[in-house]
C-alpha cells in the first residue's frame, strides 16, 4: 500500500480508500481499478493524493476499454460560438442591435455539428465551461435545442431556428441589473420579479431584427412558459405555447441542472434526466421531453459512473421506459437500475 500524489498514479493501480470531494460527495470507491479516465477525473476534481496498491507486471493491469471520443473539434466549434455570442450580447447591452447575419454566423459551426454528428452531445459533456455562465449556458442551450429539433424530426430550417432561439433565449438578461443577475444566493421575491422580465425584454430586443422569424421571437419570449400554466410571463398552457419555446424549455432545464453555478454544484446527467422525466407529466411538454430523454440517455452509453455503493461501472444500455435508470456493468455483473431501486448513480467519471 502506498500514499501517492495523483500525478504519480498509473492505470491498473487499485484504490484502497474511498475518495470524496470537498463537500463530502463520493468520487471513486475503494477497490476501483484505476483507469486513465479515473485519473483524469481525480485531477479535475483537484484531489492531491490517494492510497493505492501497486500492481507489478503488465498482465495485472486492468484498464476498461472504451471508444476514444475526440472532443477537440466540438470544443473548437463551441468556443468559437461562445466568443462571437459574447460580442453579440455586449452589443445588445450597449443598446446596439446586431444584424441577423452576425448572429447566424456565430451559429454556423454549430449547425454543421448538430446535423452531422450523432455523438455531439456525448462530446459536449467533456467540454468545460469556457466563459461566464450566461455565455456558456446560452451556447449549450442552443446546441441542445438544435439537437432536440432534429430528434423531433423537424427540417433543417426549423433546426436552425431552434438553435437560434436557444442562443438568444436569455438575451433579455443583458438588461437585468448585475447585482440581481450575478447574486450568489437565492433571489428575494422582488428580485425574482425583476429577473422574470428577461423573457419579455429579450423579445423586445430582437423583434426588430430583419429576418428573425415569428417562431424564434415566441421561442425567446415563451421559454419560461410551462404546459400546466405554471410558467411566465403570461401563464400560457399546452398548445398556447409555441413549439420552439417548448424545445428551448427542455434544453434550458437540462443545461441549467448540469452546469455548475456559484451557489450550486451541477447535477450529473442522469439526475437531470430523472427530473425531466418527472416534469414531463406536468410542466414540460410530454412528447418533446420523451424524445429528448431517449436520445440523450443513449449518448452516455460507454461512460463510466460511480454508484452509491461506491462501485464504478460502465453504462451498457438505456431504456425508453426509464432513460434515467440504465443498465450498468460492474466487473462481471450487470445491474438494471430500473429493478435495483436501491442503487443510484452518484457521479460520472468523464
Ligand atoms: Fe430564461
- Which ligands accompany this protein? fe (ii) ion
Number of domains: 3
The major β-sheet equals:
5 strands, antiparallel
What shape does the CA trace take?
globular
Q: What is the highest CATH level, the class of the largest domain?
A: Mainly Alpha
Descriptive key words:
13 helices, 3 domains, 11% strand, alpha+beta, 350 residues, binds fe (ii) ion, Molybdopterin biosynthesis moea protein, domain 2, Hypothetical protein af1432, three-stranded antiparallel β-sheet
Report what the structure shows.
- The protein has 350 residues and is α+β, with helices and mostly antiparallel strands.
- It has three domains: 2-60, Molybdopterin biosynthesis moea protein, domain 2 (Alpha-Beta Complex); 72-266, Hypothetical protein af1432 (Orthogonal Bundle), CATH 1.10.3210; 304-348.
- Helices cover 44% and strands 11% of the residues.
- It contains 13 helices and ten strands.
- The strands form three sheets. A five-stranded antiparallel beta sheet has the order 9-8-7-6-10, covered by helices on one side. Strands 1-5-2 form a three-stranded antiparallel beta sheet, with no helix packed on it.
- Strand 6 and strand 7 form a beta hairpin.
- The chain starts with a strand and ends with a strand.
- The site of fe (ii) ion has 5 residues, from loops.
Amino acid at each position: 500500500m502506498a500514499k501517492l500524489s495523483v500525478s504519480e498514479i498509473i492505470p491498473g493501480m487499485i484504490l484502497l480508500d474511498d475518495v470524496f470531494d470537498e463537500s463530502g460527495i463520493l468520487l471513486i470507491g475503494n477497490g476501483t481499478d484505476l483507469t486513465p479516465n479515473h485519473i483524469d477525473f481525480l485531477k479535475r476534481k483537484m484531489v492531491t493524493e490517494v492510497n493505492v496498491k501497486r500492481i507489478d507486471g503488465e498482465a495485472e493491469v486492468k484498464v476498461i476499454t472504451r471508444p476514444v471520443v475526440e472532443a477537440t473539434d466540438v470544443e473548437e466549434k463551441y468556443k468559437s460560438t461562445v466568443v462571437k455570442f459574447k460580442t453579440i450580447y455586449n452589443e445588445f447591452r450597449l443598446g446596439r442591435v446586431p444584424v441577423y447575419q452576425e448572429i447566424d454566423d456565430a451559429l454556423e459551426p454549430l449547425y454543421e455539428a448538430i446535423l452531422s454528428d450523432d455523438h455531439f452531445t456525448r462530446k459536449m459533456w467533456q467540454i468545460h465551461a469556457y466563459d461566464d455562465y450566461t455565455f456558456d449556458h446560452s451556447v449549450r442551450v442552443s446546441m441542445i435545442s438544435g439537437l432536440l429539433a432534429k430528434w423531433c424530426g423537424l427540417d433543417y430550417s426549423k433546426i436552425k431556428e431552434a438553435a437560434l432561439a436557444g442562443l438568444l433565449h436569455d438575451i433579455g438578461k443583458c438588461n437585468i441589473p448585475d447585482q440581481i443577475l450575478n447574486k450568489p444566493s437565492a433571489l428575494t421575491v422582488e428580485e425574482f420579479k425583476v429577473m422574470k422580465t428577461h423573457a419579455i425584454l429579450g423579445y423586445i430586443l430582437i423583434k426588430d431584427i430583419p429576418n428573425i422569424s415569428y417562431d424564434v421571437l415566441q421561442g425567446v419570449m415563451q421559454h419560461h412558459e410551462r404546459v400546466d400554466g405554471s410558467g411566465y410571463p403570461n401563464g400560457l398552457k399546452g398548445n398556447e405555447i409555441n413549439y420552439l419555446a417548448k424545445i428551448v424549455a427542455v434544453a434550458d432545464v437540462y443545461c441549467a441542472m448540469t452546469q455548475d453555478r456559484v451557489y450550486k454544484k451541477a447535477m450529473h446527467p442522469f439526475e437531470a434526466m430523472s427530473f425531466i422525466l418527472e416534469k414531463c407529466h406536468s410542466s414540460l411538454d410530454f412528447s418533446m421531453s420523451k424524445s429528448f430523454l431517449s436520445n440523450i440517455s443513449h449518448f452516455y452509453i460507454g461512460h463510466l459512473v460511480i454508484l452509491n455503493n461506491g462501485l464504478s461501472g460502465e453504462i451498457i444500455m438505456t431504456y425508453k421506459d426509464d432513460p434515467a435508470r440504465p443498465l450498468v456493468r460492474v466487473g462481471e455483473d450487470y445491474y438494471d437500475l430500473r429493478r435495483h431501486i436501491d442503487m443510484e448513480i452518484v457521479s460520472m467519471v468523464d
